[in-house]
Design goal:
single chain; 268 residues; alpha/beta; 3-stranded mixed β-sheet; 43% helix
Length: 268
C-alpha cells in the first residue's frame, strides 16, 4: 500500500467514525492525528489532554498552543497519577496501569461530550518495543487509526512535513516515568529532577535526548552525532554542575547513544 493510500484510509476512518476525541499529547503522532481529524470532521473533532506528574510542563504548553492556533476544542484534565495504586512502585506493567487509568478518564470525558470514538496515536513502529500500555488500549477499545492505516513513524513525519506541521521533525518523547529502572520508587522529586535535567539539554539545543535515572546517577542519552558537542569543556562543565545542583551525585554519558526503550531490555 502506498503512503497516499494509507493517508486516504486514515481519512476514511474519521469519516466513518463521525466524531472523534483524540488523546492529545502534542507529539508528532497525536498532532498529525488531530490535524487530520479536524480537517475531516471539523467541530466534531476534539482534543483531550491529560496533565500529570509524568508529563513535562513544556509539552503541555506546546499542546495547548497547537489547539489554540488550529482552533480545536481542547479539554485538559489533571490527574495525580502517582496516587493511583501501585504506579509509584514502578512495576514492569506501570504503563498498563497508567494508561488504563488515564484512558478510562478520557473515555468518560468523550462520552460526556457525546463523542462516539476515542483515538490515540500509536503507529506501526510501536509494536517493536515493550509497550504494556497497549493492552489497556485494547481492553478499553480505544482506536489506533495510524496503526489501522498502516502508517509508520517515518511516513507520519513525511506527511506532517507536507502539511507544514511544526511537529514533523519533533524529537520522540515518552513519559518521564520511562526514565527509571523498573522497581525503583517514583516520587515527584525524582520526576522534577529528570524534567529539570531534560530542560537543560533542550536549552542547549540537543534534539533527541533522555535523562535515565539509576539511583543518584543520571545517564544521559543523546545522539552519537552530538557527542562532540556535549564533551566541549564549557558545555560539559555547565551540565555537570547543574545536574549535581539538582541532586544527582554522578552524571554520565551513555556511549550507546539515544535509543527508545533502553529501560525495556529483555522485556519484549
Amino acid at each position: 500500500m502506498t503512503i497516499e493510500e494509507k493517508f486516504e484510509k486514515l481519512k476514511k476512518f474519521f469519516r466513518d467514525a463521525g466524531s472523534v476525541a483524540t488523546a492529545f499529547s502534542g507529539g508528532t503522532d497525536s498532532t498529525f492525528l488531530l490535524k487530520i481529524a479536524k480537517e475531516v470532521l471539523g467541530e466534531k473533532a476534539i482534543a483531550i489532554t491529560a496533565v500529570s506528574e509524568f508529563f513535562p510542563t513544556r509539552e503541555t504548553e506546546e499542546a495547548k498552543d497547537f489547539c489554540r492556533r488550529e482552533k480545536i476544542r481542547q479539554i485538559v484534565f489533571e490527574e495525580k497519577i502517582l496516587d493511583v495504586e501501585n504506579i509509584a512502585d514502578n512495576p514492569a506493567n506501570r504503563c498498563y496501569l497508567c494508561k488504563k487509568n488515564l484512558f478510562s478518564k478520557i473515555l468518560s470525558i468523550a462520552e460526556e461530550n457525546k463523542i462516539s470514538c476515542v483515538a490515540e496515536g500509536s503507529n506501526t513502529d510501536d509494536d517493536k518495543d515493550y509497550r504494556p500500555g497497549m493492552k489497556a488500549i485494547e481492553e478499553l477499545k480505544i482506536k489506533s487509526p495510524l496503526k489501522y492505516a498502516g502508517l509508520s513513524k517515518a511516513e507520519i513525519r513525511e506527511l506532517s512535513k507536507k502539511l507544514n506541521l511544526p511537529t514533523w521533525n519533533k524529537p520522540s518523547f515518552a513519559c518521564l516515568a520511562s526514565r527509571f529502572v523498573y522497581g525503583e520508587k517514583i516520587t515527584p522529586e525524582k520526576l522534577s529532577k529528570v524534567e529539570y535535567g531534560e530542560d537543560i539539554l533542550h536549552e542547549k539545543n540537543f534534539k533527541q535526548f533522555r535523562v535515565r535515572v539509576h539511583g543518584n546517577l543520571a545517564r544521559i542519552e543523546i545522539l552519537p552525532a552530538d557527542f562532540e558537542k556535549i564533551i566541549r569543556p564549557e558545555i560539559r562543565e555547565e551540565i555537570t554542575a547543574k545536574f549535581k545542583a539538582a541532586g544527582f551525585d554522578y552524571v554520565s554519558l551513555d556511549l550507546s547513544g539515544y535509543r527508545t526503550g533502553s529501560m525495556n531490555i529483555g522485556k519484549l
